[in-house]
Design a protein that fits this description.
- By secondary structure, the chain is of the alpha+beta class.
- The chain has a domain of 141 residues: NADH Oxidase (3-Layer(aba) Sandwich).
- It is 38% helix and 14% strand.
- The protein is built from 8 helices and 4 strands.
- Strands 1-2-4-3 form a 4-stranded antiparallel β-sheet, with helices on both faces.
- The longest helix has 20 residues.
Length: 217
């Protein structure tokens, strides 16, 4: 598989098979991803991996916890402008259509949303942290690191879903992984093998045409 194929094939998977993933394989992908661009070679990422027994213990840790927490950051800005507001709305409606959940069924939509906090049944996952002293350039580094990991996972026959939703549960996660307060939870990521029978995995988000975001001078 070349890079172009991995880019075309990668998408967010929201239903996983009960098929184990070797921790050694995840560590190998993380080592390769560490070659991602990093301004000043700061390498601001801090990663915690859950797999096997630690995933089982984490799911027990999460079960029944209904506390309200202060999110680490606003996942989406208020007053999201066009065309970004429409593209966000559209992909949500496409996903719920595949799940056969109508807009008026608020409870079913909430129940589905909570699947984020079970990693969509993935057998393995990671949490990505960044020191609070870091700024937007280092957040950009995180994005490049995580994208590199996801493309390498595709090459290795694994599937992923990056989950900023975990940034709304920072204390819950911190209590388990033992991250210090100066480290901010940026996101989680589900890792495993996609369930080919799950309709939600048929979702392919549309991208804007080139002319809408590129200007050749």
């Amino acid at each position: 598989m070349n890079v172009s194929q991995a880019m075309q094939q990668r998408k967010s998977i929201r239903a996983f098979l009960d098929q184990p993933v070797a921790t050694e394989d995840i560590l190998d992908l993380l080592q390769k991803a560490s070659r991602s661009p990093s301004g000043g070679n700061v390498q601001p990422w801090k990663i915690f991996v859950l797999n096997g027994d630690s995933m089982t213990r984490f799911r027990e840790h999460v079960k029944g916890d209904t506390r309200q927490e202060q999110e680490e950051y606003a996942i989406y800005p208020q007053g999201l402008k066009e065309p970004h507001r429409s593209t966000r709305f559209q992909v949500g409606e496409q996903m719920y259509a595949l799940l056969n959940i109508p807009r008026e069924d608020k409870m079913a939509r909430l129940t589905w949303l909570m699947e984020n906090f079970d990693f969509f049944k993935a057998p393995a996952a990671l949490f990505c942290y960044v020191d609070r002293q870091m700024g937007p350039p280092q957040w950009s580094d995180l994005g490049m690191f995580l994208q590199s990991f996801m493309l390498l996972a595709e090459e290795a026959g694994l599937n992923t879903c990056a989950q900023e939703a975990w940034s709304t549960r920072p204390q819950l996660v911190r209590e388990f992984v033992g991250a210090p307060e100066e480290q901010m939870l940026f996101c989680g990521m589900a890792i495993g093998h996609k369930d080919p029978e799950a309709a939600v995995n048929d979702l392919v988000s549309e991208r804007l045409p080139l002319a809408q975001f590129v200007q050749v001078l």
